[in-house]
Design goal:
Order of helices and strands of chain A: HHHEHEEEEHEHEHEHEEHHH
Enzyme class (chains A, B): oxidoreductase
Largest interface: A-B, 52 and 52 residues
Oligomer: homodimer
EC number (chains A, B): 1.1.1.85
Helix content of chain A: 40-55%
Bound molecules: 3-isopropylmalic acid
Family (chains A, B): Belongs to the isocitrate and isopropylmalate dehydrogenases family.
Protein name (chains A, B): 3-isopropylmalate dehydrogenase
Shape of chain A: globular
Number of strands of chain A: 10
CATH architecture of chain A: 3-Layer(aba) Sandwich
Number of domains of chain A: 1
Number of helices of chain A: 11
Strand content of chain A: 15-25%
Distance between the termini of chain A: 19 Å
Organism (chains A, B): Conexivisphaera calida
């Protein structure tokens, strides 16, 4: 459905886009014997960008592997209030920039007799590039970064992350910043979410805080995300698969549609093509307009099926 | 101030309690050269229980060290709605049971050229005793445990924790349970906090989720905590020191008073003395009554100074 929305945007702005579909996840594991088949990896490799749906319990073997394999180091998670949802507070607009390749997600885990150990890995290089990413994004936004870690308890690993982030801050004098421990950040996201513009953090904290922030703005129904590398990027809704409504045509497509809008924005920068940026903006504003008109699935209190939301969105795009 | 409240409770129920004071934290570091002087360690060792105030930036060298040193393995963090605060939702009453001795708090951190590594350690023994603690507490409450981890990404460490917790669950058939990934839990605490009774989790997740839960019920002003070991226990407010109001007599004492109530409850079990349990209940109900009457510091919208709240509480205790 997000595909036809992008297709429609392409028609409107006169560019072409080719979609190819590949299998991944629980159903691929069951039917093909592998959660992430080689064909899918090759498919991602040969594309300009990828968009991924929920995959189920095999998430680690799919998304964590793809992030590592293609070095998709920047996980962007906007948490923004959209019409028709019930947020804790209006006017929240946060961009979480989560380091996406290291920390405990590196996957170094060992079993010992009666115990297990995992390695939390933090490198200067990865800390620097994600901090650069966050400060550059802040320049396009409200010019403020909150650096989140727990260096009081982990002075070496989180300390390194914080130190490098502050070095990067000093080379972006137009952007102000503050540092916050992760526990304090989990409170501040509820107490004072409007005080956040860009939130820069490490992988595990980003996983937890981005879901929390999504709930602050009304839940995962509207939560898109991007996994961005040097040459390739992969976009996905934050929500998982909802087995209880699968196949009923009731899935809320907005998070995927907004992920597609992020994809168009990224592609416009990657290709230097302003038509794609216009397409991205159109998709997002069509989503806002459609939501204002109540074009929504039952989880948002609407009466539309997934495919009807798609048709509604396309109609709004043509109109706008 | 919490001291005179406990003293008053002792007078009322006819038991005796002796308090000794020891230095720790930023000011001890500045004045004595050590954040946790040997004398303080000995003082804690020779007591039945300890109560600790906020210590500042040296927290790791004080509280994390004391937790390890005395093997205070169970960190209890109630998140309960009290009168006079503004919670996200009424009727929330959660007990977070946080493993308090291992995970990344073990302190095994290493610097390498351009990087750093920390070890996340999970043992079967520590997982089992904290799970036992949580299920026993659930038996005294609403008989439900939510087990929180991230075994989809860390199958060995978090997997061990989850597996042991489920083994323990099977030996407590009167308590029902569910499992939740930590990111989902950070959402559920906002969306549906009343669905939680006991929340059992690992050290790092417990740090983050307990602050989040405290904010859900109105902030840290009312957040007590307990660090419990086999023979000794240490109680502390969750909030830190507030340098901006230090010395002005405006600090909100309720979190410390409620920590003292937890201490009396624990001591009553440790000593098998029902008078202490009555004292604990009296201190807590006096706090509730005082809050209903608006006996509160400015952070809670009241006009009372710290010492006046203390006097008000004591008066209510005598009255009840
Ligand atoms: C499904 C899981 C592996 C994944 C993660 O932990 O990163 C998800 O929670 C997310 O945040 O994208
Ligand atoms: C101060 C800090 C070391 C401590 C922790 O991280 O455990 C605090 O945040 C807490 O939760 O008690």
């Amino acid at each position: 459905m997000a595909i036809s929305v992008v297709q429609r945007a392409a028609d409107i702005f006169g560019f072409s886009v080719e979609f190819r579909g590949y299998r991944a996840g629980d159903s691929a594991l069951a039917e093909l014997g592998e959660a992430l088949p080689e064909e899918t990896i090759q498919g991602v490799r040969s594309s300009d960008a990828a968009i991924k749906g929920p995959v189920g319990e095999t998430a680690k073997d799919v998304i964590v592997r793809l992030r590592q394999m293609f070095d998709l180091y920047a996980n962007l998670r906007p948490a923004k209030v959209y019409p028709g949802v019930r947020p804790l507070m209006d006017g929240v607009d946060i961009l979480i920039v989560r380091e996406n390749t290291e920390d405990l997600y590196k996957g170094y885990e060992f079993e010992l007799p009666g115990s297990a150990v995992a390695l939390k890995v933090v490198t200067e290089r990865a800390s620097r590039r994600i901090a650069e990413y966050a400060f550059r994004e802040a320049e396009r936004r409200r010019k403020h970064v909150t650096i989140v870690h727990k260096s009081n308890v982990m002075p070496k690993t989180d300390g390194l992350f914080g130190r490098v982030a502050k070095e990067v801050a000093s080379s972006h004098p137009g952007v102000s910043y503050r540092e916050m421990y992760v526990d304090a950040a989990s409170m501040a996201l509820i107490r004072d979410p409007r005080s956040f513009d860009v939130l820069l953090t490490m992988n595990v904290y980003g996983d937890i805080l981005s879901d929390e922030a999504a709930q602050v703005v009304g839940g995962l129904g509207m939560a898109p995300s991007a996994n961005i590398g040097e040459k390739m990027a992969l976009f996905e809704p934050v929500h998982g698969s909802a087995p209880d409504i699968a196949g009923k045509g009731l899935a809320n497509p907005y998070a995927t549609v907004l992920s597609a809008a992020m994809m168009l924005d990224w592609l416009s920068q990657a290709k230097g093509d302003p038509r794609l940026e216009k397409a991205s903006k159109l998709v997002e504003s069509a989503a806002v307009t459609a939501l204002r008109r109540g074009i929504a699935t039952p989880d948002l209190g609407g009466k539309y099926k997934t495919s009807e939301v798609g048709k509604g969105l396309e109609a709004v795009m043509v109109e706008l």
